[in-house]
Amino acid sequence: MKEYDVLIIGGGVTGAGTARDCALRGLKTLLVERHDIATGASGRNHGLLHSGARYAVNDPESANECIVENMILRKVASHCVEPTGGLFISLPEDGLDYQKKFIECCAKAGIKAEAIDPKEALRLEPSINPDIIGAVKVPDASVDPFRLTAANVLDAQLHGADVLTGWEVVDFIKETVTVLGVKLRNIYTGEVKSVLSHYTVNAAGIWGAGIAEMAGAHIGMLPAKGSLLVFGHRVADMVVNRCRKPANADILVPGDVVSVIGTTSDKVPFDQCDDMRVTKEEVELLLREGCKLVPSLATTRIIRAYAGVRPLVASDDDPSGRNVSRGIVLLDHSKRDGIFGFITITGGKLTSYRLMAEKTTDLLCSKLGVERTCQTAVLPLPGSEKEKRKPSHSVVVEAAFGRQGTRVAEMDFSGKGSELVCECEQVSRAEIAYAVKELNVKTLDDLRRRTRVGMGTCQSTFCLRKAAAVLAEELGTPDKADALLKDFIQERWKGIMPVCWGDQLREAEHMRKEYGK
Amino acid sequence: MKYDVIIAGGDSADVKIAMAALQAGKSCCLVAEGRLSGEGGRNAFAKAGGVLLLGDRISSVEWAEDGSVAAVHTANLDDERLVASVYVLAAGRFFTRGLVSDMQGISEPVFGTDVQFEPDRSKWCVEDFFAPQPFESFGVITDEDRHPLKNGKAIVNLYAAGEILAGGVDNIEEICRRIISA
Amino acid sequence: MQENNISIAEFENCQKCNICAEVCPMMEVNPLYPGPKQAGPDGERYRLKDPAFFDNALKYCLNCKRCEVACPSGVKIGDIIAVNKLKYYKSEHKMRDTALASTDLVGSLASPFAPIVNGVLSLGVTKSVMDGVLGVSKHRTFPKYSSRKFTSWLRRHAHEQNAYPRKVTYFHGCYVNYNYPQLGKDFVKLMNACGYGVMLLEKERCCGVAMIANAMGEKARKSALVNLASIRKADTPVLTTSSTCTFTIRDEYEHVLGLPTSDIRSNLMLATRWLYRQIEDGKVKLIFKEDYSRKLAYHTACHMQKMGWQQYSVQLLQMIPGLQLTLLEQHCCGISGTYGFKKENYEYSQKVGAPLFDDIRNAGVEAVVTDCETCKWQIEASTGLPVFNPVSILAEAIDFEKTKEANAQ
Fold this sequence. Notes:
The structure holds 3 protein chains of 3 kinds. Chain B has helices at residues 13-23, 41-47, 172-181; strands at residues 2-8, 28-32, 51-54, 58-63, 69-74, 83-89, 100-101, 106-107, 115-116, 139-140, 149-150, 153-154, 158-160.
C-alpha cells in the first residue's frame, strides 16, 4: 500500500489545481475523483474567466482576486483562455446609477473598467441590444473549464502525482481524531481499496459537505442550482453582462464555437445535486432575459440546457445559515473541529481556482515542513508553453491546437490520424488517440470533456457510432463500443429534452431513428 | 401544369405512392424539398416519366369554395398553377418538415391541416432515450377516408399518408389503392 | 418567445444528415475536397470563431448546388461556400484566374482578331505554354471566338426588330455574344415567329458567374450593378438562353454578392419559361414542321435543376412532333465554367462528368439538348456529340412562316 503526503478528494478544477501545485512542490500526491474530472460545478458553469467586475460592488475582495487571477491565467493557461473582453451594458430600464457606482468600485478593486459610448459598444459587439444607454468595457474572458482541469491533472501527473478517476470515497480511515486515509470503491467494478496519506484534502465542491460529515466534521453548505442554455454558434465575440445588481440570466459567454447564457439561481436539496434537471420555466426565463442582452438569441438554435450546483458555504459565525460567504473558504479541521490530517477547500470560483490551490498547498507545506514556494502563477500549463509555431493550414490540426495547445505536437496526424470523427467539432482520430493515451479517458463522456466530441450542433447524431468504435478501439476493448454509445446518448438526451422544439426536435427525431431502435 | 396526382413529399411514403400512381397510368408530380439517404426510388420515378420537383416545396395553396384544394404553387414555379384531381400529403414528420414545431406548439405548414399534439412542451419527450417518444405519435388528424381535417372539416381531394399521420399508422398501401381507384 | 432559426444562409438548420455529401460529385472523385457539409455549415461555426479556419480546399467546390437541392433543411450550402471563397480565398494562379474569369474583356479583345486568336489558342505550342506557365489544362480547347459579335449583328437588324409591335429584351450573355452568335440568332428567329421583336438591354455586362467562382467579388459586384440597373429599366420581359446567367442574376447576386434582386426576379427568366407560359395562356402558338425528325437527349444542367425549371424546356421540346426525347438522369457534367479549364481540376472535372458521358453514349441519340453553354463545351468535348440549346431546336423545328402568321396580331 502506497503512502502519500497528500490525498485530494475531488477532480474539479480546485482539486486538480491543488494536485498540480502539490506535485510541483515535490509532495507525493494522489487525486481521487468519483466520476471524471470537471463533472461537478467546474464543468457546469458559463466558462467565464471573470474580470471581477461582476463582484466589484458587493464583494471587492473577490473582485480583486478575480482580476489578479484573470491576468495570471491568460499567461499560464493561454490555450484554455480566449481573451474576448467583456461588456457591461445598461438597458433603459436599468438606468445609469448603477453604472457609476460600478465603475468606481472596479477602479478600487484594480479592474480596468472603461465607460464607452453605446455606439462604440455596438461597433465592438454588433449583436448587443441596440437600445442600450450605456456600456462599460472590462477584461472578461472566456475559459474552457474542461481543458483547464485536464491540463492541471496532466501536469500533476507529469510531476509524479497519481490520479484515480472512477473511484468513490466510501469511508475515512481514522485513528481516534486523526484521518489516516480513505477507503475507495471503484464505480465500474465495485472493487474496494484503502489508501493512506499524511493529509487528506476535501475539494469535493457541494459534495464536500458529505465528505466532511463522513470525516466527522460539519460544514454548513447550501446547494444553489444554476441553469444555462447552449446556443448553436457564436452569437457574440465578447462576454456580454448586464450592468445591474447581479440577477438571473445576465451573462452571455462565447465559449469556443457556441454561446452560453445563464444562469438562474435556486436553492435545491442535497439529494438533487447528483441529477440536475433544467425546467421549462428556467428555459423560458433564460431565454426571455437573454434576449434583452442579445436580441438575436430569439432566433438562434438552442442545442442544449444544463445545470450546475454552486457550493455556497454558510459563515461559521452565523448559525442560521443565511449568511453566505462567496469567497475562498479554507478550513483547517484540526483547529476548527479537532480532526487532524484533514483540510477542506471550498467556496471560491472557477477564476480563483489557482489561488485556492495555492492557499491549500501553502497550508499543507507548512504542516509537512516543506519549504518550497508556489510556481503555478508563472509556470505555464502543458499546452500553454510559449512556442513559435507555424500554422498548419489544416482545419483538424488547428482545431486540435485550439483545444490542446502545444500538446498538438504529441498527436500523429499521418494516415488515419487526420480522419475526422466528430465533424461538428472537427475532432480527429489523432486527437482522440492522444486523449486516451494522456488524459485518463474511460467513456465517451470523458472524451467529450477533453475534445468536444459530441458537443456540436447535432449533439453526436452524426458521429456517435464512429466515435464509439474509435474510442473502444483506442481503449483496447472493441467489443464495448455499443455500451459506450448507449451511455453517451442517454447523457446527451438529458440536455436536449428541455430545449426540444424547432430544429432540435428535428434532430431528436433524427437521433431516435439512427440510434433509438 | 395539370396532373392526376400531386404529392407533397418528404418521407419514403411519397415515392411508393408516386410509383403506384404511375403504374396505374396516372400522371404524377412529386414535390420534395430534400433527398432521402440511400434513396434511388425517386430517380426511378423520374425515369418512369414522373415529374420530380426536387429541392422545391409547395409554397402556397389555392382553395376552392368547398374547402378542397384548387391548385398549388411551388417556391421555384411560383407563377405556375399546379393542378391535380388528387393531392397527397406525405411530407413526413419533423425531420422532413412535414410538421414544424416551436415553443408554443406544432403545425403542418403546407395545407395548415389540424394536428394532434400534447400542449405541454415538457411532455414531448420521455427521459429514457430508448423508449418511444411522445412526439413520434403527433401528426395530422384525418377522417375515416384519410382526408386530413382543416378546422375540423375534411379536405376531400387531399389524402395524408405515411409518418405525418397522428398515431403513426402505416396506411401507404391503402392510399395507393384509393388513388388508383380515384 | 423563440421564433424559427435565422442564421447566415440557414447554416444552423443543418441536421448533419450528410445527404449533401452523398450527392456531391466532387467529394466522390477528389479526396482533397472536404465536402459540402464540412465546407458549408460545419466549417461556418468555426469560421465564425476565427476566419483562420477557412480551408483553401473550398476552391474545389463546383458550385453545382446539388447539395442545396438535396438538403432537407433548406441550408444554402453552396452559398455559404461561395461567400467564404469571396471573403477568404487566395488563389495560387491569380493571373490565370483573372484571365479566365474576365469573359467580357477577353471576348471584346479577341473578337476582332477571331481567326488569329482561334488559331493561336488551338496551337500545340500555345497549349503547352498555357499549361506550364498559366495553369490552364492543355487538354482543353477554348471555345472559338466569333469574328462578329452577336450584338453587332442584332444592331444591324434593329430596324426590322423595331417593326414588331411587341418586344422582348434579350440578355444574351458573353457566350452568345463572343463565341456562339448562332444561338442568339435562333432566339431572334423564335421570338420573331411568336410575334415579338428583340431588343438589347441598355447595358449588359458579364453576369459575373466566373468572377464569383474565382473570388473576384468586387469586379462581380460592379458588373452586377450595371446589369441590375439595366434590367430595372427594361419595360419588357428580359429573356435569356443561359441557365447559369439566369441563376446567377436572380439568386447569386442576392445570396452571394448581397445585392437585392427581389424586384427583378419575376421579370428575368429563361426564354423557355416565358414561352411555355405564353403558350399555356393561349397567347402564343407554335406550328412545327411536318417532316421534322430528331432523336435527342435532354441534360438538366445543375443550375437548371436548382431553379427547378427543366420542366419548361422539356415540355416545350415534347411539343415537337417527330422529336424523340430521352431524359437523362441528372448528373453534373463536371466543367462548372472556368473550373474545368484549370490544370489542377481537369482530371476531377472529367471524373465527375463520366457517368453523364456514359449515359449519353448509351442513349443512342444524335445530339444532346441543354440550357447551359458550359455543359455544351464539356459534353461536346467529352462525347463528340453536338449539343444544342432548346431554343435552337425550337427555332429549327418550327415552321417559321406559319408560326409567324398564327401569332400575327
